[in-house]
């Protein structure tokens, strides 16, 4: 009789779980729309923390995978073969006075070049498609956009590859592994 009672309790528990399909932490009634319902008024959820290279080296990441990149101090979401930084609030402004090579960590940021002389903004190969950069030329020197090792094609309507004047704006979008679209105040 005792074995029968234990088996009945086990199967009843499995039946209840299979009906709701939800797991609750600090709750007896997890929301049915969630697989995992965590409730707390004093603690948070800690997402896995990784370096940029560890994030890039995750084997076969699933769409919707979320990590916290300790190098950029930001959350990153994997979607459609692309890691995308989740940006909240105002974009970050990065001031640059010398030649500079953009990285995936610069996506969504405003790169302010402030130099009296021309500076080179190098575009490396294998940046993920969809990354976007905003460039502002504050100084009198132009920002000249160049390909790393001539392996990146920089495209725009007129074939220009430099900002036009002081206080010019330019935008870059990575269209493919070796193709970047450049637009804005160019010459």
UniProtKB/TrEMBL annotation:
Q: Which UniProt keywords apply?
A: Signal
> May I ask which residue range the UniProt record assigns to the signal sequence?
1-18
Can you name this protein?
A: Auto-transporter adhesin head GIN domain-containing protein
Source organism: Chryseobacterium salivictor
């Amino acid at each position: 009789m005792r074995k029968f009672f234990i088996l009945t309790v086990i199967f009843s528990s499995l039946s209840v779980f299979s009906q709701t399909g939800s797991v609750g932490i600090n709750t007896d009634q997890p929301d049915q729309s969630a697989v995992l319902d965590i409730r707390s008024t004093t603690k948070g959820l800690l997402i896995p923390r990784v370096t940029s290279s560890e994030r890039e080296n995750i084997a076969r990441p699933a769409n919707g995978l979320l990590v916290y990149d300790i190098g950029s101090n930001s959350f990153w979401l994997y979607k459609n073969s692309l890691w995308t930084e989740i940006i909240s609030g105002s974009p970050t402004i990065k001031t640059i006075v010398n030649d500079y090579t953009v990285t995936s960590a610069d996506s969504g940021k405003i790169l302010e070049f402030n130099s009296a002389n021309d500076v080179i903004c190098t575009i490396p190969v294998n940046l993920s498609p969809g990354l976007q950069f905003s460039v502002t030329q504050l100084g009198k020197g132009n920002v000249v956009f160049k390909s790393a090792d001539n392996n990146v094609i920089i495209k725009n309507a007129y074939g220009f590859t430099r900002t036009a004047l002081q206080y010019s704006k330019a935008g870059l979008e990575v269209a493919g592994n070796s193709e970047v679209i450049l637009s804005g105040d160019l010459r």
